[in-house]
Amino acid sequence: MADFNKYNHMLMLKQAVNSIVECNEFTKNNGLTLTEQDAVQLVQMRTEALRSNGRIEFGGGTVNRIISYFFDSPYLNQENYAGTIAELLEIFYYYKNELLDLLTDDELLTIMRDLFNGSAQGSLALLGGRDLYAAAEDLRKGRIKKEQLTSVADEINDSAAEDYREAYWEEFENE
Amino acid sequence: MNELSNKKTIDGSKLSGEHYFNDLLQQAWQQRLLDDQQLAEIQMAMLQLLADQCAAYNRHASSSVRTEVAESLYESLAFTISFYLKSLPTPEDAVQALLHTGLSELYRKGQNRLKVRFQSTRHLWLLTLENKLDTPHHAYKTTVCEGGLGIFFENYDQRYQAHENPCSIDYQLACPVNGLMGLDFIRCYVERLYQENRFCQLFTPKAVHRLLLGYDKNYWLLLINIFQLVLSSAVGCVLCGRDPRQLILDKKDIISLQQKLSQMDRVQVEMLLRNSAEALLDQLQVTAAGTHSYVLAALPEIEMLINNAVVNDCLQSIILVAAS
Questions:
Q1: Cβ distance of B36 and A93 shorter than 8 Å
Q2: Does residue A161 have a pLDDT over 90?
């Protein structure tokens, strides 16, 4: 039985790796590709992210979905591509828990992408540690409803823009 | 015939009521009724069923669930499949069903059986409410009268949490329900509570109240079982030649009973109590088989308590002297 399980595990790993590599078909136009070794690492990172966040996933597809949401981000380049996707995986599962599973995968990924490309300006630390944190806090404390989260992302983006403008004018006036 | 006698069998007593599915697989594998390949196939089919269940739970909108949710969904699946498997004549038949019927089909059959059992249990619960006791006992009231148990029939989630009991039960039965969960547990609890109520209804609420005041003046705050104290005292009345319906004994009765029982050994005491219980059931004209057998099932515990009380010279705590 151990052999059967091992064989089955290998088969599933191979399938997951292949499906990630297939994403190169639509990401290569943006100058982003993953090697087979990157894909293997991403599958392993996914397993680790699931384990560390106390979650279980049947079937793969989450890595591909994250790629499909983020591949056209202006903050991604070939250098940081694989590493960013791995970090986003961890943030994604972490906030699935923090948002009490109230959001679907697509809803969470939409907010993550909007914040990443907006107020976080490609910073994973700001995305995970500030913007998503604020949105999750609002949702948990009942300050906003699930349906309002997208507009909260807009607000966070607007307020970040406002902060930037204020900082710019302060600097300008000081000069 | 020879083939039958050579057949490997599963020890049904080693199959727990709570984790029947897993125990059955383990026993069947140990007895070589399942080989490694078959066991792996059943486990894989179970995982597939769990994956489908998780997807349905997430309404196909999230690909992952928290580990505890997955565990709970697995328990629910295993409980529902077990519910059907337990209905088969023998554990060997259950193994054959696992081998030759798809798990999803077994799950569907289990769900159908659960649905029917749920309705019949709710009916039994309504009957239990009709014969509930008129008592100030707090745990009894919160469990039976104030919706502690009744809420189960509103909250039970047969699809995703069939193994859970979403209710609050504070009242302890004379014969506690062990080794069961979900609807199995509630069914057994309600059946036993129904029989306890039926027996206690043979006495007036006033007689029961007076009797329990003899146990403690604040008895309604204690986690006692009313049926057990009523039964032991009624048996005491029979032993002392009093009218069991009145449930009235005085201290002299208890002292003479203590003296009488202390001269007997344990087996003789048990025999005497059993005969007295039979006489009690005759005097009370208990004809319902369920109540009759429940009283006899509750007797061993009372026999043990009385035997210990005789040794420790505290019979009055089991066979009560009603408050005046």
A1: no
A2: no
